[in-house]
Amino acid sequence: MKVGLFIPCYVDQFYPQVGVATLELLEKLGCEVEYPLNQTCCGQPMANSGFEHLADSCNTLFLNGFSDYEYIVSPSGSCVLHLRDHLHVEGREEASDQLRVRVYELVEFLTDVLKVTNLKARFPHRVGLHQSCHGQRGLHLSQMSELNAPFFSKPRQLLDQVEGLELVPLARPDECCGFGGTFCVSEEAVSVKMGKDRVADHEQHGAEYITAADMSCLMHLEGILKRKHSTVQVKHIAEILNQA
């Protein structure tokens, strides 16, 4: 299976180890992975700020770079959701439609396409799972607690396969961390307070690490943790699943 690897710009610039872990994990699971070198931002920051027309060149670049792949996989739920909902190149509507449905977030690709049930991973630590909003409410990686419906969690399904890992219970397991992309700039005080609440929930339940499928949420929480000199660390789920 040939996979096109899409690494979001903030991961490329600030957390390259997440991209490396994603690549290594996919290769361990038998995928032939290629990384188109001319890829760049998916265009989400512009679109979320009300300037979607400024993302036209990003859309064209993405379409040109990834059209030949059966699957495109990315370790970022928010970027994947943006591409699924908004990727559009004028005059190439059919190609855009066909590409959108081939873009997968890493966790859903592992569970829904590769159907991984026996990961060879070990991470002997207490871990708190942060359910990022785009992944949970947009990509349906896990069930929302306010719904009267059967529970499921694709990230947990994978983490349960990691030897030695103990998932800690949280008081509010699917509450927003407050990052919200440009929201953390326009509503800084609200964003920080929401982040502090999420950090406190993990700390009070004894988590050594906080993990998530979105490094953007973890970046926000990491900033709060570092400012309060907490010993709790953040680690993208790809890094944990790739631990030998």
TrEMBL record:
Record domain Cysteine-rich: where: 3-84, 127-221
InterPro entries: Cys_rich_dom
GO molecular function term, any single one: oxidoreductase activity
Pfam families: CCG
GO cellular component: cytosol
Record protein name field: L-lactate dehydrogenase complex protein LldE
UniProt lineage: Bacteria, Pseudomonadati, Bacteroidota, Cytophagia, Cytophagales
